[in-house]
Amino acid sequence: MNAVFEQAVAAQERAIAAKAPLFVRACPGAGKTHVIVSRHLRGPSVTLRHGRALLSFTRAAATQMRRRCHRDARPEATAFPHYIGTLDAFIWDALVTPHLPANRPLQLLDSWERVQAEVNLDRPIPLSGFTFARDPKTGQESIRRDLLSHEHTLLINSSRYGWDRWVSAAMETRKAQFQAGYVTGHESRLLALRYLSAGEHVTGPLRSRFAEIVVDEAQDCSVTDVEIMTALHRLGIPLVVVADPDQMIYSWRDAELRTLRDLAVELGQTVELNGNWRSSRTICQAAATLRSGARPPDSAVRPPQVEPPLILLPTQFPKSGAATHASTGRPIVEAFLDHAQVHGIQPADCLITAHSRSYLPAKNRRPSGNNATMLAHAWHVIRSGTADQALVDDACRIAARMLLRYWYPDAPVNGSVEARCTAAGVEFAGIVRRAYGFVYRLPEPHTSWITDVNTALKSASRPPGANPRGRTGQLGGKPPKPRTATATAPFRSDNIHQVKGDEHPAVLLLAPDNDVSSRWISGDPGADESLRGWYVAVTRAQRLIAIGVRTDQVEPLTAYLTARRVTNLVG
């Protein structure tokens, strides 16, 4: 057992045993779920308060905490008076619903889109397009104009009504929805704050039920969420807040670093978890270059081993189409997967991420090309054994269209597969099954593959009513284009906001900005959310991190990372 391991375990034990109120600053991979559940299973120390609330931001995280309780043979730790769930659900279930007037039922909506609410002056704009915010100092509400979509901004700018009139109309529309019995998460928070200030008849039952409230991933909290937590703390409910401010990437949800730091100061006691059980030493060192405060790298708890360097991939980012490797012209994802393969990491264990989905590989997109290329794509999908169900369904439809055209040449050529099956008088499910079997039995695409496909068409068993006519429906033209390696690769691909909380053996971060190196080297993560986003991406990696940047950004980044003792390689 090495010293780093012992220090990491000791820090976890301090976080488990420390009395609330408590702020736990947990680095990526710190094992905070273990800490939270272990703290819970040791039981509250005050006998008159039997319950503990464990709150996170996703149902998946809450489910994981419940599973750990069951795994440790403590199913009762998931039942009343305890509460394990999302912060949204807790606010509604524990802080709002018990105090609603009996004659005024309310329904919680995840969005105003559920009731198709519209703000209608000289044109309609969905109420969901307006983001409401509350100033904790004044208690006044406003609408964040900076978070309007481009489409809605254009509509309002071209309206004969000014911004203030639109704000007033949005407030009126929301009030009407409330009177009709509907609220969203923002309004439920406003109600929670109102009830928490109502007196002992509201706050007393909370203190009696809960010995402690633990909020995980608190860096994702809005300023209103932090205001609610501050109110709970001041009402005497022991509060434990677990957060990594360096991963705050939801300013569009009204998350704010200053308010979280103020809450940490008010709680008074902080425990640091800086032992990373997830990532290699190289990844910990790389991550440290992207966070504020010039703090030393987190300690990699993983046993020492030969580990990959950080890989910088010179990348060309065209205005449209996939990013390519500047040195070889191949898709950048292929170059990354090759590096992962060298280190024994399979595509299924790889993550590709970026701030915007527009830069990510469209691995579920059909290839462009003639019918032969489309059918070859379908063959690779069906024979891969790794493609997701949506890809397989689409592949079957590609083949079904060809079979329908060949077997029923008089049926309509256009329309959905279902509509064409109806016109031909055959069952859709039966045609799809035949399409799957037909494609699966074809040989691997090659230069003479069109001939093989047409031969297979002629010899395939036919459904009732099939009446082929000459060459109608058969493949023709040029051989299929070569398949790209990423067409059916089972790697994860999503934007940074969606992969937060994940971990993968290998991660590729695509950073297309022209000023990546200057921001990485001299930017302030406290003020630049993009840097915090890159930090989140880098810290998803367990063994290998690769970063795709424009060619002119490679040299300054290499020099900087080398100076910061981050082992790197230009690939």
Automatic annotation (TrEMBL):
Give me the residues that bind ATP, please. Answer: 26-33
Superkingdom assignment: Bacteria
- This protein's UniProt keywords: ATP-binding, DNA-binding, Helicase, Hydrolase, Nucleotide-binding
Question: Which PROSITE patterns would you find in this protein's record?
Answer: UVRD_HELICASE_ATP_BIND (PS51198)
User: One Pfam match, by short name?
Assistant: UvrD-helicase
Query: Start and end of every UvrD-like helicase ATP-binding domain?
Result: 5-280
Q: Where does the signal sequence lie?
A: none
Keyword Hydrolase carried by entry: yes
Q: Where is this region: Disordered?
A: 458-488
Q: What is this protein called?
A: UvrD-like helicase ATP-binding domain-containing protein
Q: Which organism is it from?
A: Paractinoplanes durhamensis
Q: What is the lineage of its organism?
A: Bacteria, Bacillati, Actinomycetota, Actinomycetes, Micromonosporales
